[in-house]
Design a protein that fits this description.
The protein is mainly beta. It has a single domain, classed as Quinoprotein alcohol dehydrogenase-like superfamily (Methanol Dehydrogenase, Chain A). The chain is 4% helix and 34% strand. A five-stranded mixed beta sheet has the order 1-32-33-34-35, with no helix packed on it. Strands 2-38-37-36 form a four-stranded antiparallel beta sheet, with no helix packed on it. A four-stranded antiparallel beta sheet has the order 4-5-6-7, with no helix packed on it. Strand 32 and strand 33 form a beta hairpin.
Length: 588
C-alpha cells in the first residue's frame, strides 16, 4: 500500500509497548551469521552492521525514546577513544563511523582505526575488554579517517589506511588473519569505508580516488582474507566503459572513482549497490575528456562474482567534484499507482533520485537543495542533467558555468561538497520519508591545467581549486519517496557532516560541527531536543538497547581541519574548536 506519512502518536505508543515486552526476552546469542544479518531488523536491541541493515535505511524500530519524552534525554555515559593526532594533508584525524552493538557488547574504532571492544551491559559505564591497534604509521598515510567496522561470525573486520583488511577475534582481540592489498605502483591506495559482509564475502572499496589512483571494489573470503573478485570503477582500455575516456595519455590510470562509503545489499537478488566518486582531476575535465565511466555512478554488482548487473551515472564528465559515493537506500514503494522496488539516493549534485532496483531504470529526480545552478534540471526520460550532449568530449550543463583552462572562476551551487555528500542518510518505512543532511551554499571554482605528460600516481590530483561563497549553512531534508519531493526541511546554522538516523519513536537524530546533538520530529523536522557537548560531530548516530533500555550513541571527533572547518565554511565560531575523540551515549 502507498505510504501515507501519517503515524499517530497512539500507534507509536502501542508499538513501543509491544517492543518493550519483546526486549524483556533474553537477547539472542551466538556468532553473527548471514541469517542474523539478513534479519538484523528483528534484533532492534543490536546494531549489527554499519548502516544498521542491508537496505541501509539507518532506521531503528526502538520507540522507548519518542516525540513526547525526548526532551528528557540526558548523558548516560561517555568513553574516550583517543586518536586525535593531527595530519598535515587534511588537518586532523576524523572518525566518521559509528559503533556496532551485539547483545550488550560494543565494537568501535577511532580515526586511526584502533578497535575497542566494550562491555556496556550495566548501562552506567563502558568497560574495556580489549583494544587492537593496527599500527598505522602517521608519516605513511595521507589522512586519518575511519568510517566503521563489520561483524562476521566470531570476527570484527576492519579496513586500514595502509590498504590492509584485518579480521580480529571478538573474544580475544587477536588477529585471525590480515591481508594487504597494496599494488607496487599504487602505494597510496587505502580503505576508509566500513566493510560489508554478505554470506561469507567481505566487500569493500578502495577510497583514494583523488590521490592519483583509480577506484576498485573487491570481494574477499571472510574466513581466509583471500580476494575472490575485483571490479574496477575506472576500466582499463578495451573493457566496457573505457570508450568513455577520450584522452590520448592514459588518464584512466589516475582517473579517480574512489569508494568512500559502504554499499547496500538486496538478499533477494544478491545484488549489492555501491556509489562511486568523482573522476580525477576534479576541476580539469580537459585532462580526461568523455563521460568517464564508472565515476559518479551507482553500480549494481553481483555480490558473489562482482559482475556488473547495471549502472546509472548521475553526472557524466563531472567537473564540480560531485561524487556520488553516498548511501543508496533500498525500499519498496508505490509510484504512480504501481509498486516499485527502488534505489533512492540524495545526490551530492542536489537532486533526490529514484531508480528501479531491478534494472536501473530512471524513475525521477527532484531538487532538494535551496540553490542549484549547475544545470537547469534533469531530463525526465533519461535522468541525465539538462544540457547533456551524448558522446561529447566535454560537457557544459549550464553555459559558462563549467571550469575551463583560461577561464575565470565560475560560481556553482550546490557547494562542491554537496548537497548530501558521504554523510549517512536514513529512511523511515512507517512514514515513507527519506532524510538527508548536508550543506546549503555555493562555491567558486578555478581551473588549473594538469600536465598531460606527467605521471600523477600517488599525488593529490585536483586541477584547480574551490572556495565557498560566503557563509555556508546546513539543512535536514525529508523527501516523500513516492513522489521524490521534499515535504519538510530543518535549517541548520552549520553544514551537517554527521548524517542522520530515524526511529520508530517519530524522531530523526543528528549532530552538528559545533558539538550539538539534536533530535527532530520525523514528520515536521521541528527541533525537539538538543545538547551541546563541545566537540563537533562528523559521525552518524545509532540506537540500541540493553536490558530493555534504549540508548542513542554518537562519536564526536571534529576539530579545525581544513575540510569541514571554519575556513571551508566561513564560520568563525568554529575557528578555535579543539578536537576530542569521545563516544557519547544518551538515554532517558
Amino acid at each position: 500500500m502507498k505510504h501515507s506519512g501519517n503515524v499517530r502518536r497512539g500507534a507509536l505508543a502501542f508499538a513501543g509497548a509491544l517492543l518493550a515486552a519483546a526486549l524483556a526476552l533474553p537477547a539472542s546469542a551466538g556468532n553473527v551469521n548471514y541469517n542474523r544479518l539478513v534479519n538484523a531488523d528483528r534484533e532492534p536491541q543490536n546494531w549489527l552492521m554499519v548502516h544498521g541493515t542491508y537496505d541501509a535505511k539507518r532506521f531503528s524500530t526502538l520507540s522507548q525514546i519518542n516525540r513526547d519524552n525526548v526532551k528528557d534525554l540526558k548523558i548516560a555515559w561517555a568513553y574516550p577513544l583517543g586518536g586525535t593526532v593531527a595530519m598535515s594533508t587534511f588537518g586532523g584525524a576524523t572518525n566518521q563511523g559509528n559503533p556496532l552493538v551485539e547483545d550488550g557488547f560494543m565494537y568501535v574504532a577511532n580515526g586511526w582505526g584502533t578497535v575497542f571492544k566494550l562491555d556496556i551491559r550495566d548501562g552506567k559505564q563502558a568497560k574495556l575488554l580489549w583494544m587492537f591497534d593496527p599500527g598505522i604509521d602517521p608519516s605513511g598515510v595521507p589522512l586519518a579517517l575511519n568510517r566503521g567496522l563489520a561483524l562476521w561470525q566470531d570476527k570484527v573486520i576492519t579496513g586500514t589506511l595502509d590498504h590492509r583488511l584485518i579480521a580480529i577475534n571478538t573474544e580475544t582481540g587477536e588477529v585471525d588473519w590480515e591481508t594487504s592489498f597494496v599494488h607496487e605502483d599504487r602505494p597510496g591506495e587505502f580503505f576508509d569505508d566500513a566493510p560489508l559482509v554478505v554470506d561469507g564475502m567481505i566487500i569493500i572499496g578502495q577510497s583514494a580516488g583523488d590521490l592519483g589512483t583509480r577506484g576498485w571494489i573487491i570481494g574477499v573470503d571472510a574466513d581466509t582474507g583471500v580476494e575472490q573478485w575485483r571490479f574496477w570503477t575506472v576500466p582499463s582500455p578495451g573493457e566496457p566503459g573505457s570508450e568513455t575516456w577520450l584522452d590520448d595519455h592514459n588518464a584512466y590510470l589516475t582517473g579517480g572513482g574512489g569508494v568512500w562509503l559502504t554499499g547496500s545489499y538486496d538478499p533477494e537478488t544478491r545484488i549489492t549497490y555501491w556509489g562511486t566518486g568523482n573522476p580525477a582531476p576534479m576541476y580539469d575535465p580537459e585532462f580526461r575528456p568523455g563521460d568517464n565511466l564508472f565515476t559518479d555512478s551507482v553500480l549494481a554488482l553481483n555480490a558473489d562474482t562482482g559482475e556488473l548487473d547495471w549502472y546509472f551515472q548521475y553526472t557524466p564528465n563531472d567537473y564540480l567534484d560531485y561524487d556520488e559515493e553516498g548511501i543508496h537506500l533500498l525500499y519498496d514503494t508505490e509510484i504512480d499507482g504501481v509498486m516499485r522496488k527502488v534505489v533512492g539516493h540524495f545526490g551530492r549534485n542536489g537532486f533526490y533520485y529514484n531508480l528501479d532496483r531491478i534494472n536501473g531504470e530512471f524513475i525521477s529526480a527532484n531538487q532538494y537543495v535551496d540553490e542549484l545552478t549547475w544545470t537547469n534540471g534533469v531530463d525526465p526520460k533519461t535522468g541525465k542533467p539538462l544540457g547533456y550532449v551524448p558522446g561529447a568530449a566535454l560537457q557544459e550543463y549550464n553555459p559558462g558555468l563549467a571550469p575551463r583552462r583560461g577561464r575565470a572562476a565560475v560560481a556553482t551551487c550546490p557547494n562542491i561538497q554537496g548537497g548530501v555528500n558521504q554523510w549517512p542518510t536514513s529512511y523511515n518505512p512507517d512514514l515513507g520519508l527519506a532524510y538527508g543532511a548536508g550543506i546549503e551554499g555555493c562555491s567558486d571554482i578555478t581551473n588549473e591545467a594538469m600536465d598531460e605528460e606527467k605521471d600523477y600516481r600517488d599525488e593529490l590530483i585536483i586541477g584547480g581549486n574551490a572556495v565557498s561563497i560566503g557563509r555556508q549553512t546546513g539543512s535536514i531534508s525529508a523527501v516523500d519517496v513516492s513522489t521524490g519531493r521534499t515535504v519538510a526541511k530543518a535549517r541548520l546554522p552549520f553544514p551537517n557532516y554527521a548524517g542522520v538516523m530515524s526511529t520508530r519513536g517519530g524522531l530523526v537524530f543528528s549532530g552538528q560541527l559545533d558539538g550539538t546533538v539534536m533530535a527532530h520530529d520525523a514528520e515536521t523536522l521541528e527541533l525537539l531536543w538538543s545538547m551541546n557537548v563541545g566537540t563537533g560531530f562528523k559521525a552518524p548516530p545509532i540506537s540500541f538497547s540493553v536490558n530493555g533500555k534504549q540508548y542513542i550513541a554518537i562519536i564526536a571527533q571534529a576539530g579545525t581541519g581544513t575540510i569541514g572547518g571554519a575556513a571551508a565554511f566561513n564560520a568563525p565560531e568554529l575557528a578555535n574548536q579543539q578536537a576530542a575523540s569521545i563516544l557519547w551515549v544518551f538515554s532517558l
